[in-house]
Amino acid sequence: MLSFCLMSRLATTGEVLQLIRSGEAATRADLGRVTGLSRPAVVHRVTELLQRGLVVEDAEGPSTGGRPPVRLRFNAAGGVVPVASLGASRTQIAVCDLSGAILDRTEVVIDVEEGPDVVLPLVMDTWEKLLNGRAPVVGVGLGVPATVEFAAGRTESARVMAGWTGVEIPPLIAARYPVPVLVDNDVNAIAMGEHRVAYAAELGDLLFVKVSTRVGAGVISNGAILRGALGAAGEIGHIPVRDGGGVLCRCGNTDCLDSVASGTAILRHLRAKGRDVHSLADVTALVRAGDAETMAVVRQAGRWLGEVISGAVNLLNPAVVVLGGDVAEMFQPLVSGVREIVYRRSTQLATRTLRIERTRLGPAAGLTGSALMVIDQILAPEAI
């Protein structure tokens, strides 16, 4: 708890805000008791937060004798965070408040391979429409289907956006929105949103696997995103599987998970078997109709996913594996295939309490995660 380490030193204004945001302190008296600050020091810090619009005074709280205390509440409406989650098949765009809640959102069809000069202005124009005169923009968050050098916001090894490789995105957005701009891998943002909204209260370790046009993963370790030394953690799409048939992957290797178990791969497998499928919706229709061959293809994709995920489970020991993305959300046979292999091949201890579940948030997770990524930075005690 934050309060545990504050009694030995003076709490900063940022730490006072954290106590109010977390609910540890709801009145000026609470703040004095938790931090050990004098009454004038508490008043000074609270006044600063009130003036900056980060805290508001609520109706009077319950009295314990005498005048009831005025309660303090974090003001989630004190600013807005435009966010976007770029994808190969669809892009989610939204505006969030300072709690990460989505105020307005839309989905647009953008060919991300047209490059940042085309895509980013379209995203920013869409933000402008969604903002519609709302509170000041305090930060911008973006999730992209690429490995991202997080500190610089530079995209590398783009999975579906070859024209973006080596592009430093924040300056391109900051030219229009002069606020902190944070960019991360799309699955990292999804993992953060899924964890913080659906799981943070019960567990700290989560593996999110997105199965859509491509395959990627986001790792939450002890409540925080695990990015690795250069931001390349979670790129499970380029781990080879056994008996994949020698399929050439776009990375140059053969039988990568991307090339045999993604939505693109499932469509290719079914077309090779004579099925007239043009989209995942066509595959869904065949699964619902009970087409045995289609269900077998989907379940095999799940087994290949399970083969790679089982290695990640042994290595990371997550409390839950969450499967998301269009493919995982549509096809129960795929989820069953993952469970079959993971529970068979992972160690007994790693799977003793392991849960394998479908996403609880769906497409909203990437938007919420992108907002939280920004909020965590701009409202960190040292930033305040």
TrEMBL record:
Keywords, comma-separated and alphabetical: Kinase, Transferase
GO MF annotation terms: kinase activity
SUPFAM superfamilies, A to Z: Actin-like ATPase domain, Winged helix' DNA-binding domain
InterPro entries xref list: ATPase_NBD, ROK, Tscrpt_reg_HTH_AsnC-type_CS, WH-like_DNA-bd_sf, WH_DNA-bd_sf
Sequence similarity: Belongs to the ROK (NagC/XylR) family.
PANTHER family with a match to the protein in the record: GLUCOKINASE, ROK (REPRESSOR, ORF, KINASE) FAMILY
Protein name: Sugar kinase
